[in-house]
Hints:
The complex is a heterodimer. By secondary structure, chain A is of the alpha/beta class. Chain A has helices at residues 52-60, 82-88, 109-114, 120-136, 141-144, 153-166, 183-198, 210-216, 246-253, 306-314; strands spanning 3-18, 22-37, 40-46, 67-75, 78-79, 93-96, 171-175, 202-207, 219-224, 227-233, 296-298, 301-303. In chain A, a hairpin with a 3-residue loop joins strand 1 and strand 2. Chain A starts with a strand and ends with a helix. Chain B has a single domain (2-200), classed as P-loop containing nucleotide triphosphate hydrolases (Rossmann fold). Helices cover 29% and strands 25% of the residues of chain B. Chain B has seven helices and nine strands. Chain B has helices at 42-49, 92-96, 104-109, 126-137, 156-172, 184-190, 197-200; strands spanning 2-10, 19-27, 31-35, 57-62, 65-66, 75-78, 144-148, 176-181, 193-196. In chain B, a hairpin with a 2-residue loop joins strand 4 (57-62) and strand 5. Chain B is globular, with a radius of gyration of 17 Å. The two termini of chain B are 29 Å apart. Chain A binds chain B through residues 16, 45-50, 99-101, 142, 150-155, 157, 176, 179-186, 208, 210, 247, 250-252, 254-257, 260-266, 269-270, and chain B through 12, 15, 36-39, 43, 80-81, 83-84, 111, 113, 115-116, 123-128, 149, 152-161, 164, 182-186, 188-189.
Amino acid sequence: MEKLLEVKNLSISFTQYVQGLNRHDLRVISDLTIDVNSSEIVAVLGSSGSGKSLLAHSILGILPYNAHVTGEIKYNGKTLNQELKEELRGKEICLIPQSVNFLDPLMKVSEQAIGECKDDDEHKEKKIRQREIFDKYGLDESVDDMYPFELSGGMARKVLLSTALVGNPNLLIADEPTPGLDAKSVEETIQDIINLKKEGKGVLLITHEINVALKTADKIAIFYSGYVIEINKAENFNSADTVLHPYTKALINALPVNGFKFTDGVQPLEETLGCPYWENCPDRFDKCENHKPDLVNHDGIMIRCFKYEEADNGA
Amino acid sequence: MELKVENVSFSYNKKRQILKDVSLSVSSNSVVGLIGDSGSGKSTLCKIIAGYISNYKGSVTIDGEKIPDKDYYPVQLIFQHPEKTMNPKWKMKKVLNESWTPSQELKDTFGLKENWLNRWPSELSGGELQRFSIIRALNPKTKFIIADEISTMLDAVTQVQIWQSLINHCKANNIGILAVSHDIDLLNIICDDILYFKDINNL
């Protein structure tokens, strides 16, 4: 296994104008470190609004102009700058975007899946591949000539998935590929992601559906308010006892199959001085309010919580 | 009160019929789940019940009476993608007060933060926006809520928060809910009764 994608200390912030010319920096991702190896599926799981999609957008270089990015992203050992991103995206690195709004409303969906082609031969080749993939997802030939408004939500998702697979990528970034799909299509998507892994490809799966992450991923990173708070092996997520962070425990217990347990609180909108989960944490210490814990290795599990830092220091 | 859908048939074009003789009923104070494959016509049915589509065959009634389309429509649809239902050039305060002025108490139940109100829709997450679109639909004149995959895009913790607040409010105010979802585990927990779309659609 070799490292396909390395993200080190990535931070993203947006410059906003508030009242006239007063500018305000809004931090959305802070100090993110995550690796994806070849033949590996890494899931990034987090509450909505925690900045997961921006991670994908920064890897592909499609962030809006008012975004500021610091930190380092490497692909195959080479630093990914904007030029390299533009060269690789759509070929070696492909994205399944999150929102069905990413489809062009004025273009037939089969052409969107095929994408840009140099000449007619390439178009024919890709057309065959597009047809195969559409077939696999149960989109019959009548769908080829449809426009996005004619598709149901689930069909639109399948089209988005096909657009990424037609390109035959080395690294697939799947940004919420499954919501709104019926059980059978979810199963197919999962199978496709696993097949990519078997072919030696790397997958960064961004999702909030823990079931999908559990079925596919080797590692799961939990995202909260722009911070990675825990990176743990996928099998440890079957029970709230084997995950470490209090938010991760709340997340597992909130699943319908695990009791649909209610946990109060929303994530903070503004940058906090201390731990981002401090406000809602049941196990908080005094120092959590004003000090930020680092992401540390605790028995092979990466965790950002003083509770475990204390335990390690005491030992 | 009872919301009744009787023998509703509909097709967008001549090539394919989507709905055929669909019947179902939801009574106030109950949560009915509806589950089905994507593309099978669940959202179309939701739009018909909520009055967005009018050229269908069959009838949608409340207590046997046809629903008047002149006044406030008592059946409100909450969509899967809240970002598509809001004017991108309105601040959230205006979006929230579009239909009525919700009480502070209701805003607190849904965990709405005061500083969200001065933002644009694009500056909030799906989970945050969905809270706005639910509160907006809970006008006192609303008798039934059609929830079309409203928590599909949300994380598990937010999903519990939103469903608990919505169901508590609806039970207290005698509002019936039709909950459409793919997630059978979720429907098993929140619903009093579950319908399978393929059983009620006579295609």
